[in-house]
Design brief:
Oligomer: heterodimer
Structural class of chain A: mainly beta
Largest sheet of chain A: 6 strands, mixed
Shape of chain B: globular
Number of helices of chain A: 0
Largest interface: A-B, 26 and 30 residues
Distance between the termini of chain B: 31 Å
Radius of gyration of chain A: 14 Å
Largest sheet of chain B: 7 strands, mixed
Number of helices of chain B: 0
Number of strands of chain B: 11
Chain lengths: 116, 113
């Protein structure tokens, strides 16, 4: 079975602070895909990044960076110099080819509040 | 804008009723997924269609059903509604290659009174 754990339910930071959102996953499959999605207060789900299990390279996109470590089954997300617009719920998700097709298994989400 | 459209945006109905939620995938995407987001259950996968055929089922109740039409739009039918069915229902689409990112529509917020 697949499982994604986001242990941090809520995080509150002051603007310009760096913040890391943790994601731990469980799967017995050797081929899998990890994702991060953002859900701002408006409610839509916005795709941020996808990583496959064979690519452990970290990725940086502007103020966002992702650290994928298979040894600890983690796929953490860091926002550098946070801004108020980063306030949202962030979801980590896992996908494997299984009898659930390629459905996304989501974690419970981490609610990030960035205050001025 | 993800390119995925969902209608209606809001739906208020009574227990016991039946509703239909509609989704149009991004142009070129053959796969449609339905997810339910509720406070207690989080984001849960319901069902997937690929090019008109059911591909996979998740935690979908027997009272719920879906289909995908030849033009690739999809409908999710919810019947005998209960208070607990109140949730945000998302549709997502992808090209349907392994590990594709899924692009989500704006969701339909269903309130059952």
């Amino acid at each position: 079975a697949q499982k994604v754990t986001q242990a941090q339910t809520e995080i509150s930071v002051v603007e310009k602070e760096d913040v890391t959102l943790d994601c731990v996953y469980e799967t017995r499959d050797t081929t899998y895909y990890l994702f991060w999605y953002k859900q701002p207060p408006s409610g839509e789900l916005v795709f941020l990044i996808r990583r496959n299990s064979f690519d452990e390279q970290n990725e940086i996109s502007g103020r966002y960076s992702w650290n994928f470590q298979k040894s600890t089954s983690s796929f953490n997300f860091t926002i550098t110099a946070s801004q108020v617009v980063d306030s949202a719920v962030y979801f980590c998700a896992l996908s494997v080819a299984s009898n659930s097709g390629y459905a996304l298994n989501f974690g419970k989400g981490t609610s990030l509040l960035v205050t001025p | 804008d993800s390119g995925v459209t969902q209608t209606p945006k809001h739906l208020i109905t009574a227990t016991g009723q039946r509703v239909t939620l509609r989704c149009s995938p991004r142009s070129g995407d053959l796969s449609v997924y339905w997810y339910q987001q509720s406070l207690d259950q989080g984001l849960q996968f319901l069902i997937q269609y690929y090019n008109g055929e059911e591909r996979a089922k998740g935690n979908i109740l027997e009272r719920f059903s879906a289909q995908q039409f030849p033009d690739l739009h999809s409908e999710l039918n919810l019947s005998s509604l209960e208070l607990g069915d109140s949730a945000l229902y998302f549709c997502a689409s992808s090209v349907e290659q392994v590990g594709d990112e899924q692009f989500f529509g704006p969701g339909t917020r269903l309130t059952v009174l």
